[in-house]
Amino acid sequence: MSRGTHRGQSHATGETGMCCEDRESVLRSRFAAAVVGSVVVTRVRGEVAGPREWFASSDPGTFMIVLVRGGSVVVEQDDDRGRIRSGEVGVVDTGRRHRIRYGDPCDAVVLTVPRASFGPHADTLRRRVAERIDGGSGAGAVVAGVVAALGEQVDQLPGPSGARLGEALTSLLVAGLCEAAPDPDDDTVRRITAYALAHISDPDLRVDSVARRFGISPSRLHRLFRGRHDTFAAWLRAERLRRVHRDLRDPALSGRTVAAIAARWGLYDPGHLSRAFKARYGRTPAQIRRQSPAGSSRTSPAPARREPAVFR
Questions:
Q1: Residues 302/255, Cβ–Cβ less than 8 Å
Q2: Which of 28-37, 107-116, 117-126, 209-218 has the lowest mean pLDDT?
Q3: Cα–Cα–Cα angle for 191, 195, 196, nearest 5°?
Q4: Model confidence at 43: pLDDT above 90
């Protein structure tokens, strides 16, 4: 968790996800920030004075969900512009040229969420940038209420170990923000996503089987997902790896072998699993297990147990 006061800084970023857009701006604010799984929660109370210029983030892989609790925030992205007022929610795509102008004073809570967490819904969320989302009714009220509560409890949030809470927050944002801006193909993608997640432990869940299930061609299935984030195969692989990575770090599962955890999510090829982990996380599954809370909780070696490696 980070906590402090910044004065005279031209560019305050990093863990807070907040920034002034040029070298002459002055950020005078009290802030507190915490990490929940892969989500950064920031509470900022203060003001930004001075000129603001266009800003392009060096990290294009995140969305900022901004709840304004007092004052106002003007968000400009490309040709879109919107003033987010107290009680409203706004979306900022850090990968696009943007400008943020904070009212004087301003009280806001910001969630900084990796784009990959939204999967095929990321493109839907991109269409909502600079839009004023009502935080007082419907799904917007649910999102605003949870974000406000996170801001109030920022000192008590669990940190990086709160992976499940982080995933729950992302699911809430998908339901409250992405599904409120329907696209003609969104219903098909949602149904495919729900089906795939429900059967993600099935090793026979593949492009051809899902395409047959929904009466579309494999190429059509890839196009549906590629237009939003990635191909279906890449998205499914990432979802499986993310769940294996989470479970390897879970102390409650320290008694299970890597092979058993991988099989739980439909991955049976140990060589492929090791290479995929190395490419995605920079470490093998065994290394992640040893360096995680789950690994440190194993006070004595578990009895040797042979499990067949099934290659598919």
A1: yes
A2: 28-37
A3: 115
A4: no
The two tokens of residue 184 are 């003609």
Please say whether the beta carbons of 125 and 114 come within 8 A.
no
> Is residue 55 helix, strand or coil?
strand
Q: What is the model's pTM?
A: 0.52
Handedness of CA 160, 15, 41, 7 (dihedral sign): positive
Q: HSE on the CB side for 98, CA within 13 Å?
A: 25
b/e 228-250 (16+ beta carbons within 10 angstroms → b): bbbbbeebbbbbbbbbbbbbbbb
Specify whether the CB–CB gap between 312 and 269 falls below 8 A.
yes
Task: Write out the two tokens for 61.
Answer: 């892989």
Taking the C-alpha atoms of residue 223 and residue 126, their distance in angstroms, rounded to an integer, is 18
| pLDDT single digits (tens) 54-106 | 454 545 688 989 999 988 888 877 766 778 889 999 888 888 777 777 776 78
Sole residue written with tokens 């699911």: 171
**Continuous segment of H or E residues that includes residue 274:** helix 270-281
Give the pLDDT score at 71.
85
